[in-house]
Amino acid sequence: MKHEFKVAAMTMGAMLITSGNAWAATVYDKVELFQTETFFTDSFEISEAGAYIATLTDFNFPAPMSDTGMNVTTTTDSLGSLMAPGSFTFNATPGTYFVSFFGTADILSPAQLRRCFPPKTQLGMYGIDISAVPVPAAAWLFGSGLIGLAVVARRKAQ
User: Fold this and answer.
1) Strands of the sheet with 86-92, listed across from one edge
2) Which of 21, 47, 107, 127 is the most exposed place for a label (fewest CB within 10 A)?
């Protein structure tokens, strides 16, 4: 019986360690190809309090964007913003939040415009991802270690 309990406890601890990063829930995700310029504000819901990471990506397709930025807000406060691709973390409680984005595709120089007839519309592609920050694997390892210590203490008490 003791051997089976050890095996079960070790197996559960290993599963918790390996699945720690898989529990990061995405609350907002958007990838879009646009022409020349775009600006929008979308709302999204957060159902669990905790730390979240907002990431803005310029896919450099078909060329890098000349300007881009993102802002995450509540109805009254800004939680973080970017003026270039990157990411930031913020703390949130359950409720409605807003993400705003602006982007300008690479603008042709006047010399390039003279060579293009009719003028070509420039394209840009971006991605926005807002996800819960996962509990690090070290926390799961610490938890399984505490369970192991409790088992050892219980054995010594008997």
Assistant:
1) 26-35, 123-132, 50-58, 86-92
2) 47
Three-state DSSP state, 77: coil
Provide the token pair at 153: 């203490």
- The 8-class DSSP code of residue 76 comes to S
Tallying the residues shown for the chain, one arrives at 158
At how many degrees (to 10) do helices 2-19 and 137-157 cross?
160
Q: How far is 157 from 151, CA to CA, in rounded Å?
A: 10
Rounded to two decimals, the pTM is: 0.67
Tokens of 34: 């646009």
d(CA 83, CA 68): 6
